[in-house]
Inverse folding.
């Protein structure tokens, strides 16, 4: 009966991955462990800390583990062991050797952890990484490791299947297909970046713009590269993307202002706006849902005559008023327009007021929403 309740709890994580903490505690109680963890240890070359979910284990030793001892003798031994099978970490080492390590002195001894029953999971143990489930044993319990492994064995395949299902859900948690549709409907060049600044998705407008290599371009690694000869603009882009990705990663950072990018062709400068995306609710989803930032590139020269004509005809706007309205719908604020268009703030203010009167709107936000429905069509307007 107890095991049936545990199975229900284990598979409930597919719908609610936040319940993994409860699973770790429940399994620990069932096998007689101090507590449990779900861990992913990146390869040393990745130079980033492990990801952990703890079930009734103290945070302090886990923090020391993440910062200083991720690849300890236990991790190394478990990473070489077969996946999907419970095993005592000490059984894979020379007897007593773990007690001679700094890892034991810093992490295990102060909190009375003598051994760990691990399950190496195949989905987390690829490309030099290690990961899976671990259940810590006290000195008293460590003398009965075979009993603990035997009690864990019936639950092991269910834990692995539930985690696989959780990760599968996570691979769709960012709505990748839906985002692709949304990106292609956006009138501006738009793309998604992962935590390293590499492009994970780009709409057609972004692909076209970056292939032109006029101001901004794809680089060989799939990231963004300023092709302007102005080093200051390259540095500004680098700082802007770094700040956004730092915020997306949870760092206490300030998002940079939009970046103005000059173009060798002499066309109007681009305006790059980057915003962080919220972190996944389940930390392990970051392993399979990598998009961390949205980048929008506003190209004033790409607005078409057909769109401008449609706007003018629909609301009786002048060409200058239509240009302001469409830029607003593209994400450019009224305060940014004078520098972008080469006109005074008073001129922009007058044009916006005329737009409000002719369209029956009362704010820049309302006007922007109204004209977002006009997608770019026809040939690009380079005038």
């Amino acid at each position: 009966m107890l095991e049936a309740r545990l199975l229900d709890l284990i598979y409930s994580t597919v719908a609610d991955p936040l319940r993994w903490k409860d699973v770790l505690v429940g399994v620990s109680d069932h096998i007689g462990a101090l507590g449990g963890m779900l861990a992913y240890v990146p390869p040393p070359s990745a130079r980033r800390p492990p990801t952990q979910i703890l079930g009734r284990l103290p945070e302090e030793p886990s923090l020391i583990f993440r910062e200083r001892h991720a690849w300890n003798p236990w991790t190394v031994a478990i990473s070489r062991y077969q996946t999907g099978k419970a095993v005592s970490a000490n059984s894979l080492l020379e007897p007593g050797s773990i007690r001679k390590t700094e890892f034991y002195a810093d992490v295990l001894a102060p909190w009375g952890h003598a051994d760990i029953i691990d399950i190496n999971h195949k989905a987390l143990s690829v490309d030099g990484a290690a990961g899976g489930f671990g259940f810590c044993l006290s000195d008293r319990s460590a003398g009965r490791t075979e009993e603990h492994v035997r009690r864990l064995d019936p639950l092991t395949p269910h834990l692995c299947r539930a985690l696989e299902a959780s990760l599968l859900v996570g691979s769709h948690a960012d709505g990748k297909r839906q985002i692709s549709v949304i990106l292609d409907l956006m009138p501006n060049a738009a793309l998604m970046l992962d935590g390293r600044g590499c492009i994970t998705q780009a709409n057609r407008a972004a692909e076209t713009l970056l292939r032109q290599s006029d101001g901004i371009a794809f680089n060989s690694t799939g990231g963004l590269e300023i092709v302007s000869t102005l080093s200051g603009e390259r540095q500004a882009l680098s700082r802007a993307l770094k700040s956004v990705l730092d915020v997306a990663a949870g760092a206490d950072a300030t998002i940079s202002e939009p970046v103005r990018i000059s173009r060798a062709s002499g066309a109007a400068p681009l305006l790059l706006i980057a915003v962080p995306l919220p972190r996944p609710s389940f930390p392990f989803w970051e392993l399979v849902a990598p998009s961390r930032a949205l980048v929008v590139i506003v190209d004033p020269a790409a607005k078409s005559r057909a769109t401008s004509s449609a706007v003018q005809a629909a609301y009786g706007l002048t060409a200058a008023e239509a240009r302001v309205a469409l830029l607003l719908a593209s994400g450019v604020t009224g305060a940014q327009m004078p520098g972008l268009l080469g006109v005074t703030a008073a001129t922009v203010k007058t044009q916006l007021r005329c737009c409000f009167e002719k369209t029956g709107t009362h704010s820049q936000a309302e006007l922007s929403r109204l004209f977002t429905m006009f997608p770019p069509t026809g040939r690009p307007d380079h005038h």
Observations:
- The chain has a mean pLDDT of 85.
